[in-house]
Amino acid sequence: MSSKTEQILGALQSALKAIPGVTVERNSAVPEKIPSAGLIILRDGIADEPELPLGGFGGVYCRQDAEIEIFVENGDAAARDAAFDTLLQQIGTVLDADPTLGDLVFGMTYSRPEIDTEAVIGGPAIKAGTLIVAIEFEADTPLG
Question: Which residues face 116 on adjacent strands?
Answer without folding.
Answer: 128
